[in-house]
Design a protein that fits this description.
Elements: H1 3-10, H2 14-33, E1 36-37, E2 46-49, E3 52-55, E4 62-63, H3 85-90, H4 97-113, H5 130-136, H6 148-162, H7 169-186, H8 191-202, H9 206-214, H10 218-224, H11 233-246, H12 251-266, H13 272-276
Antiparallel strand pairs: 1-4, 2-3
Helix pairs in contact: 2-4, 2-6, 4-5, 5-7, 6-7, 7-8, 8-11, 9-11, 10-12
Length: about 280
C-alpha cells in the first residue's frame, strides 16, 4: 500500500515516524542525485512492501534543462494542498529542489497529523517537529531548507530529543536548532523550549558551553530578552560571560559579543541587575 493508507499506524510510534521520514528523504535523494525533480510529492506516491519503500508516480518528473511540455511556464499540475506557491505563479518552470522539499514538508505533516495539509496547524504535534514542517513549507523559497541533507539533519536533532537519544551537547544543539528553525520561519518561540535550552546549557562543562555560545545566532538574544524567559536570563548571562572571558576567538568576534549584549541591555524587560552584569 501507500504511506497515507499506513499513516494511522505510523503516527502511533514516533520511532516509526522517524524511520518513515528518513526513507522518504532517501527516495527523493535518489532522484535529486540524478538531477531529476519529482514535482508531485505526496504520501500516496510512496509505496511500501515490507520494510522497503519506493517513490512512485514519476509522470511529472523532469530532468534539469528538460524541454518537455510540463516545463513550459504556462503549465502546472500536481495535488492541491501539496503544491508550492511558485507552481501556481510560474508553473513547473519554477521547480527546483526547494519545491520538492516544500511538498515533503506537507507530506510529513499529513502523515503525522492526519489532517489536510493545505494549512499547517501545530495542534497535537510534537513541538520539535512543527518548526521543521513550517520551514520546509515557507512561501519564500529562500527561507526553506536548501538541501535534503540539511532537512535530514534538523529531523535527526528533533527526534534525538523526542526519543531521548540526545544527551549533553547533542541535546543542547538539538534544542538550539529547533529554536532557530522556529525563529527563521515564523519569528516565534516557545518559552519552555528556551528555558530548557538554558538549563541544559548550564549543566555542560565549560568547554562545551563555550562552543555553543560561540555559535548562537543573534536572533537567540532577541528571544532571551523577552519577558517570558526573564527568569533564565541571569543564568544565561553568567554562562555567556564565562565564554567571553575564557574562550578563544577572533578580535572580530569581540564585536559580535558586544552587539549581542547590546540586544539584551536595550531590551525593556531586562532587569537592572542583569543589565549591570
Amino acid at each position: 500500500g501507500d504511506l497515507m493508507t499506513a499513516a494511522a499506524e505510523i503516527r502511533n510510534d514516533i520511532a516509526h515516524v522517524e524511520a518513515v521520514f528518513n526513507r522518504m528523504i532517501d527516495c527523493v535523494s535518489q532522484l535529486h542525485a540524478k538531477d531529476v525533480l519529482h514535482r508531485d510529492i505526496k504520501p500516496q506516491n510512496f509505496l511500501l512492501s515490507g520494510n522497503s519503500m519506493v517513490v512512485s508516480d514519476l509522470g511529472l518528473c523532469s530532468e534539469k534543462e528538460s524541454t518537455t511540455a510540463f516545463t513550459r511556464s504556462s503549465q502546472w499540475a500536481g495535488t492541491p494542498g501539496y503544491l508550492p506557491p511558485e507552481y501556481v505563479n510560474g508553473g513547473f518552470k519554477e521547480a527546483d529542489p526547494a519545491t520538492d522539499i516544500f511538498m515533503l514538508g506537507k507530506s510529513f505533516y499529513a502523515i503525522i497529523s492526519g489532517r489536510d495539509p493545505m494549512y499547517l496547524v501545530p495542534d497535537g504535534l510534537p513541538s520539535q517537529l512543527f518548526p521543521i514542517f513550517e520551514r520546509c513549507c515557507a512561501v519564500n523559497k529562500a527561507s526553506r531548507y536548501q538541501s535534503l541533507a540539511s532537512l535530514k539533519q534538523s529531523l535527526t536533532a528533533a527526534f534525538d530529543v523526542l526519543l531521548g537519544r540526545a544527551v549533553g551537547p547533542g541535546k543542547v544543539y538539538a534544542l538550539l536548532r529547533s529554536m532557530a528553525d522556529r525563529l527563521r520561519t515564523s519569528q516565534q518561540y516557545h518559552a519552555g523550549e528556551v528555558g530548557q535550552f538554558v538549563e541544559e546549557l548550564a549543566i555542560l562543562d565549560a568547554n562545551d558551553q563555550h562552543k555553543v555560545c560561540l555559535e548562537l545566532p543573534q536572533e537567540a538574544f532577541a528571544v532571551l530578552s523577552q519577558s517570558l524567559v526573564q527568569q533564565h536570563l541571569g543564568q544565561f548571562i553568567a554562562i555567556y560571560r564565562g565564554m567571553a572571558e575564557k574562550a578563544t576567538y577572533s578580535w572580530s568576534f569581540a564585536e559580535v559579543i558586544a552587539n549581542n549584549m547590546t540586544v539584551l541591555f536595550d531590551a525593556l524587560d531586562t532587569s537592572a541587575a542583569d543589565k549591570a552584569e
